[in-house]
Amino acid sequence: MRRVLVDQGSSADVMFWSTFNKLQLSLDQPRPYTGCLYGFTGDQVEVQGYLELRTTLTDGSTSRTENIRYLVVNAHSTYNVLLGRPALNRLRAVASTRHMKMKLPDLSGKVIVIKSDQQEANRCYENSLKAKSGVFMVVEQPPIKDDRAGVARAENARERRPEPVENVVERQIGGKTFKLGKSLDQVEQDRVAEVIARHLDAFAWSASDMPRINPDFLCHRLTMDPKVRPVHQRRRKFNEERRLVIQRRSC
């Protein structure tokens, strides 16, 4: 099979619906999929189901065959399948975009070297730029039981923030409030407080607590050609729910 995209940033292995039809697979073969799949733009992608196929990778001299679980996606793409981290980890494969090669061991320990067709890769890239929609990176997430998809995803992200694994006790150190674990006895708490007090200048609660920092370390610069005429980007409009979420998160 040609036109296979190896994407180390994708959390799922994807087979596109056009490829599924070309392989003449049975429509009853995909199993139901209850999760959610999102593209790099954050839009939800329609998943028809998933199936496991024996996939053979070869460089002409040696080969390796593994069962790979593909999510069948009803989306347009210039590629036939997308191999993400699950398949790469299972195959113990290492991909190099600089050399346009992928190496993986076979069952006997020999190294399989799969080379990319540079002309075909350039054609796929150019066609993907021409297409207005396409899936190049996907993120697999559990389903969210909320009709307000955008609001629910934002709230769900906040709920996944790290939290203390045990009960804590607040303690004032140098005029600042710190939280120490209750499992520490009084002697251990005193020792931790002593270390924090000695290195209190290493903590920052606001930008004013970080003086004398070189602006080159914090500031970003855009490389722009002064000869090119700037283009005004069209203003994006959000519905009321998303606008309120953006307003709360930007305050």
Question: Summarize this, please?
Answer:
The chain has about 250 residues and is α+β, with helices and mostly antiparallel strands. It contains seven helices and 13 strands. Strands 1-7-2-6-5 form a five-stranded mixed beta sheet. A three-stranded antiparallel beta sheet has the order 4-3-11, with no helix packed on it. A three-stranded antiparallel beta sheet has the order 8-9-10, with no helix packed on it.
Describe this structure in words.
The mean pLDDT is 78. The protein has 251 residues and is an alpha+beta fold. The protein contains 7 helices and 13 strands. The two termini are 50 Å apart. Among the domains are: 138 residues, Acid Proteases (Cathepsin D, subunit A, domain 1); 33 residues, no CATH class. The strands form 4 sheets. Strands 1-7-2-6-5 form a 5-stranded mixed β-sheet. 26% of the residues lie in helices and 27% in strands.
Rg (CA only): 25 Å
Oligomer: single chain
CATH topology of the domain at 4-141: Cathepsin D, subunit A, domain 1
Which spans have pLDDT < 50 for at least 5 consecutive residues? none
How many DSSP H or I helices?
A: 7
The strand line-up of the biggest sheet is 1-7-2-6-5
Write the H/E string, N to C.
EEHEEEEEHEEEHEHEEHHH
- Which CATH top level class of the domain at 4-141 fits? Mainly Beta
**From the 3D coordinates, which CATH architecture of the domain at 4-141 would you assign?**
Beta Barrel
What does the average pLDDT come to?
78
The helix content is: 25-40%
* Strand content range: 25-35%
Based on helices, strands and strand pairing, what is the structural class? Answer: alpha+beta
CATH superfamily of the domain at 4-141: Acid Proteases
